[in-house]
Amino acid sequence: MTTQGYNVAVVGATGAVGEKMLETLEKKNFPINELHLLSSKRSAGKEINFKGVTYTVKEATPESFENIQIALFSAGGSVSKALAHEAVKRGAVVVDNTSAFRMDPDVPLVVPEVNEEDIAEHNGIIANPNCSTIQMVAALKPIQDQFGLSRVIVSTYQAVSGAGTKAVNELEAQSQAFLEGKELEPEILPVSGEKQHYPIAFNALPQIDVFQENGYTFEEMKMINETKKIMHDSEIKVAATCVRLPFFTSHAESVYVEVDKDNISVEQVQEVIKNADGVVLEDDVTNQVYPTPLSAAGKPDVFVGRVRKDLDNSKGFHLWVVSDNLLKGAAWNSVQIAESLIKNNWLQK
Amino acid sequence: MTTQGYNVAVVGATGAVGEKMLETLEKKNFPINELHLLSSKRSAGKEINFKGVTYTVKEATPESFENIQIALFSAGGSVSKALAHEAVKRGAVVVDNTSAFRMDPDVPLVVPEVNEEDIAEHNGIIANPNCSTIQMVAALKPIQDQFGLSRVIVSTYQAVSGAGTKAVNELEAQSQAFLEGKELEPEILPVSGEKQHYPIAFNALPQIDVFQENGYTFEEMKMINETKKIMHDSEIKVAATCVRLPFFTSHAESVYVEVDKDNISVEQVQEVIKNADGVVLEDDVTNQVYPTPLSAAGKPDVFVGRVRKDLDNSKGFHLWVVSDNLLKGAAWNSVQIAESLIKNNWLQK
């Protein structure tokens, strides 16, 4: 480490996650020597302020990564596929926030509170999991460690910001039109580029990302496959239903789990969650205390409430898990991985 | 039956469900001789148009039910508790849309497509189930009949109209304020009369109705207990998580079920749903076809989509169930019960 810090590139700096990436670097006072803001050709030329200095966004090319030590990618899977290896070739370690390499057996998929040690195995690329997966495994890890975990069934309540800035704008404009008694033709959600679009304002769409041949969406399969990889247990049964909802920030999840041990109490589950890193227990129903998307927005933690025992299965528990999808679900987790690379001297292989 | 029809009272005629009750009576051309619109003292005096005739709403008292044959109650549990037996005493049969008598062993709890024959056992009162229960059991009944049913885990996505007209107004006003960058103090949701209120606009609230001692909400316990009663199987394992969301009409439900028979295909489940009364299969993910709250609003059916097999449990299936909570979830089902009373000569005991 130089005393001044590291040369850092942020790829996709003008996007919804890129913006949070810069906020997080600033908030965590990340040791930066040179900062390079990169984007598609279309967004190049924009100016962005970071710690009082104005940076001009440049088009990301293979040569952009000369002399970069850490590259944070969040510009879509195709950009990562085209440029991540180019960055690695030039000596950078890439933290990639797309689905491009997540299931690649040579690429660690990391939530630092869950499997930080996997970062040590990297070959230049570390993948940041899907937003809805990150918050769930952060909440499940302390349960797995203490009581074992055999089954997860999750139904999600996901914010539009997970679909990017255009989806955020669509919800805002559509909501306004609806309240004025007008209709605005849907153009983005559920999935930009798909044939059918449906209104999101005052609605719920049971489709996030494209459908796979097995009838599940890609988002659902990400939750299923990534959970097993991050938790190092291909035997955990995971089922997911992912739903897009009309709010801007934070994903919420109704999670049913079955643990291995019998006779575990709600208080024991609450206790391990309370003591877990990065997880905050907000669970006092007598006083109507539980997390909501609005209460979690802007905070880096994963919030858990509504912990209760299944009434039929003595090993079953229900949880309500909420986190800011752009922070812990994306930017915050990526920067945590970068910090771990530095702290553990894992940048050089 | 007189040739002119029946003397019908609608109790709670000025409420959100009462309004749909009148719309449904009109739409179904229900055989009415005299129509009596009743309400609390506060709403008495309002005028309501029905089939071109203006009716003045009167305060509901025991004497209001003299000469009434069918009384449709939807004015809250306390009104039903105070007046339903008074109506029965005077010869009326009550169809009650509150939770007052649902779990009373002497009161049939009925979704006509599921257990119409239970109406015959009435002692003057028939209970209309909770809105979120009705649509779920309508979708599950054909599955239970054909394949057996041992386990249900549901997470709901519920519209604000289930919490009444004030909640609808709150969502509308709060959404408008939010879009203007203002904040509006929450006063109604999640539960009118509770200590804490939270914003519903662009948010999700994991509380519907008050919390019980076991950590579940009353809404969740309604789904659990009512399902077993309606489906005549106290052994079915039912778990529920109920969430209020920022849309006006229709509840959606992510439902996981385990059937008794093995080797059942998705196509077989789709087929029995397609052939069930009152249930419409909208399930073609290749063309992004699935129901949403907006697409179901204003329609009397229960819509089912996203049918898929669990990837770990060969007897497990996932469904997405959507219906208009004020129609099939309340008014439509109540009027169906009243029609069945007439059709089957079950009015007189």
List the helices and strands and how they pair.
Two copies of one chain form a homodimer.
Chain A (H helix, E strand, L loop, with lengths): L5 E6 L4 H12 L4 E8 L7 E4 L2 E4 L1 E2 L10 E4 L3 H13 L3 E4 L15 H4 L9 E3 L3 H17 L1 E9 L7 H15 L38 H13 L6 E5 L9 E9 L6 H9 L4 E3 L11 H4 L5 E8 L6 E8 L3 H17 L6
Parallel strand pairs in A: 1-2, 1-6, 2-5, 6-7, 7-8, 9-10, 12-13
Antiparallel strand pairs in A: 3-4, 9-11, 11-14, 13-14
Helix pairs in contact in A: 1-9, 4-6, 4-9
Average pLDDT value of chain A? 97
Annotated CATH homologous superfamily of the largest domain in chain A:
Dihydrodipicolinate Reductase, domain 2
Give the terminus-to-terminus CA distance of chain A. 14 Å
Please report the first level of CATH classification, the CATH class of the largest domain in chain A.
Answer: Alpha Beta
Radius of gyration of chain A: 20 Å
The helix count of chain A comes to 9
At CATH level 2, the architecture of the largest domain in chain A is 2-Layer Sandwich
**Anisotropy-based shape of chain A:** globular
The proportion of strand residues of chain A reads 15-25%
Strand element count of chain A = 14
The class by helix and strand makeup of chain A works out as: alpha/beta
| CATH topology grouping of the largest domain in chain A | Dihydrodipicolinate Reductase, domain 2
Assembly state: homodimer
Biggest interface between protein chains, with counts per chain? A-B, 59 and 59 residues
Estimate nothing, just give the exact number of structural domains of chain A: 2
Parts with pLDDT < 50 across at least 5 consecutive residues of chain A: none
The SSE string of chain A, one letter per element, is EHEEEEEHEHEHEHHEEHEHEEH
Largest sheet features of chain A: 6 strands, parallel
Share of helix of chain A, binned: 25-40%
Keywords (chains A, B): Amino-acid biosynthesis, Diaminopimelate biosynthesis, Lysine biosynthesis, Methionine biosynthesis, NADP, Oxidoreductase, Threonine biosynthesis
Subunit structure (chains A, B): Homodimer.
GO molecular function (chains A, B): aspartate-semialdehyde dehydrogenase activity; NAD binding; NADP binding; protein dimerization activity
Domain Semialdehyde dehydrogenase NAD-binding (chains A, B): 7-122
